[in-house]
Amino acid sequence: MATKASRSAARLMMAPAVILLLGWMLVPLTMTLWFSFRKYLPLRGGDLGWAGFDNYTRFVTSSAFWPSVMATLTVVGGVLIITVCLGVLLAILLDQPMWGQGVVRILVIAPFFVMPTVSALVWKNMFMDPTNGLFAHLFKFFGAEPIAWLSQASMPSIIMIVSWQWLPFATLILLTAIQSLDSEQLEASEIDGAPPLKRFWFIILPHLGRAITVVILIQTIFLLSIFAEIFVTTGGAFGTKTLTYLIFQRVLESQNIGLGSAGGVYAIILANIVAIFLMRIVGKNLDN
Q: I need a labelling partner for 111 at 20 to 30 A (CA). Which of 90, 166, 258, 268 fits?
């Protein structure tokens, strides 16, 4: 049992790490808040003084703001649906005994370790190129006209690219959860004559509830800040400009640090709203 002296010593040893972590988070946040109230144009005069809430008003009333929010939520929702549904199916398949099971699992998980820029370039040039891409050759083989994916189906293309990268993560988490399932329950239900679909719906899926919740929460945190895939493929065109990409344009392309910082504050607010929604709606599985 820990004594008062040992608890104090533990707090003392943890203090440097906690202080460093708080500084790592609070310093950028404080600077973002500070610049969001300033008119700061690095290449056009520098700090031009206090702007108040003008940056916030200009950013939220911009014609690109609400479309960027909708694009962000569309990407997040589409990727979550694909990765969770396919992740469950892949986890069930990988849990079955097969020849070369270890190699297959490594190949399925491998895309998660590919950098987002690299995966986006691979999909853009090797798969989605309307002239020499793999999809174009498949369409021609079946007598169909190739599609310019990144212009004619830009949002589905982005969702497909990001889902390919995050599917291994969801599969790994869900596979771990399936392997912790008591096999006696499945054997008993099979002896009782329960069909595979009912065994999945009433035994496997409820058991995966917590794992699915974890996958949704973690992926949402990262997907709200998606940038690299859009930057490499569409450049924010064709309705794929997310909130993060809009902030990038305001900061680097327009050289308006104050306006971009105000957008960063809006992004933080959006992330917290989505996180609270997920914790209340989806996160209830953790209490069951």
A: 268
